[in-house]
Amino acid sequence: MNAVAVSIQNLEFKYPGQITSCLNTINLEVAAGERFGLFGPNGAGKTTLMNCMTGLLNYQQGSIRLFGNEVINNRKTVNNLFGFVPQDFSFYQELSPVENLNFFGAWSGMDKAVIKKKSEELLEVLGLADVRNKPVEKFSGGMKRRVNLAIGVMNTPRILFLDEPTVGVDVHTRQAIISYLKELNNNGTTLIYTSHQLNEAEDLCNKIAMIDDGKIIVHDSLTQLLTEYKEEGLEGLFIHLTGKMYRDS
Amino acid sequence: MYKLWATILKDLQILTRDRVGLIVMFVMPIVLAVVITATQNSTFELVNKNKVSLLLCNKDTGDASRELVTAIEKVGMFEVKKVTAGETEKQLSDRMHEKDALVAIIIPPNFSARVDAKAKATAAKALNNLGLQTDTIKINNDSVQPISLLYHPVLQSSFRQSIQGALRSTLQMVQSKQVLKSIYLSLNETELPPALESEIINNQVAINEVPISRDGSKTIPNATQHNIPAWTIFAMFFVVISLGSNVVREKLSGSFIRLKTLPTNYFLALFSKQITYLFVTLLQACVIFAIGIWLFPIIGLPKLNLPTDLAGLFIVSFICGWCAVSFAVCVGVFAKTQEQANGIGAVSIVLMAAIGGLLVPSFAMPESFQQVIKLSPLHWCLEAYYGLFLEGGKLKDILISILPLLAITILIQLIALFGLKRKNLI
What we know:
Oligomer: heterodimer
Shape of chain B: elongated
Radius of gyration of chain B: 31 Å
Distance between the termini of chain A: 43 Å
Helix content of chain B: 55-70%
Order of helices and strands of chain A: EEEHEEHEHHHEHEHEEHH
Shape of chain A: globular
Number of helices of chain A: 9
Strand content of chain B: 5-15%
Order of helices and strands of chain B: HHEHEHEHEHHHHHHHHHHH
Largest interface: A-B, 34 and 23 residues
Distance between the termini of chain B: 19 Å
């Protein structure tokens, strides 16, 4: 049986000043090595849940454990376990890919030699070797996404959180990113992924959960859910479970 | 240690690519130092070397007025343009508006007669007191009609004071001469011999100007010695524009989210920024001092003389720089946007410079301001620098300025730390 990568129990979270909870009694388990997708309409609580899992938000009740370590109490240990690819570009635009990787590598606690080796490898794999010394601010959106991903996996994380990692990129870049993510997963990295690109998600994820109004409404393997709800794809399943109304108005 | 080095390197890379920030930190203060020193130096030269144009209208025909005109010409401060006695005050002021002159003097009619009468009266009084004079001279109590001094409104108060002082001194000399002549005539019944007159009048005691200094040097401070330390401090504190907005930019950018998910405390990032920008402030000081030493003499400005206590100079610069950097970090921590950081930073520096004595000397400020001055870190920076540059002091002599500066710096650091904790940044 696989180890549990992420274990969430009775999680409650509300933003300061809010009366109602944003996340209500969330219970969720993600096994190590899974490619887990978290989906839901806008404002459902996906990003909030991911921010709680990565320690960016302090939850008020319940528990989140990454490989058995409570997120709130073991920041340093937990932060060594995962990598994060936020939806926004999370790097220094003035710096080149190499300079960004050197800096974030150092902040991940890696030593100089390892940083050098790993960054060379990542630049090569993600097709950034030719532009390694150019400032990222001059890159296209797709190239910036690859830099964003490279920094997220720099510390060879056991869990990789991805918040819409392919938003705004062309088909080629999307294919390259998804292919690289699968490769990472084959090497043992657990993927926790959110996106509105449901076709892409269908291709990548083997387990999914749907969140709506701060609650997990389903959680199972994609195949099992499609069979259960008699849908042919994730998009159909999404509409079936969350309805057709606008959710962020 | 590698983390810190990598962070400093990152900050340096970002800094060196920020051209606008570099201009604000290096070029602007250099330009300010050159321009202000040149302006103040030319002001000094205007009073001491250049001449102020003066229209002189002598409506009198007597000896005293002629002597007064000669004395005014001899002052050396004025470029005297004589106008005809018939010119009215209105005509003179019209000429002045046409920028013919900044100052005009009108010597009234009968000036000499009145001065002479007054001198004779004074002489008679003096001789009577000594019991030497009979009452043959009628004592005339009429006062001398005042000389009119017209000045252009652009002329600042300090200039007017100088001009008035020079005129008063000349007038005093003419009047004294007349009294002396009268007394001599009364006693000897002959005119005062010109040689004796010259000896008595011109035999003034010289004034020896001696600046007090702790190291015993007698160099008279010039505009450079005053301005370079002041504008160096201003430059150091102006890192708030670059560093304050750098902190805000990082807080608002995605990179901060990433930093928070890494196993390193954000405090290291701020520590690195402090080291990087402290280096920048020391570099600013070196560049501005170097300009004062080597460039100023080339462009005709007085040369900067470095203090003898170079170690003291380094320590003062270090503490000033640290205070400036602490203030910038504090602004960055509390500001919500770059615009806020830039606005609050720039305005607060100008205000602190003003109340700190960088723009107006602190001794010239009103009594009510004397306690407020002490709240400005720039005041203590300036006091410490002046202790070294102007007073020739050593480090121990300026501890009284350094200790409050250190206290303010630590307070600013604590406020920044409080902000970081409160905003959950560390």
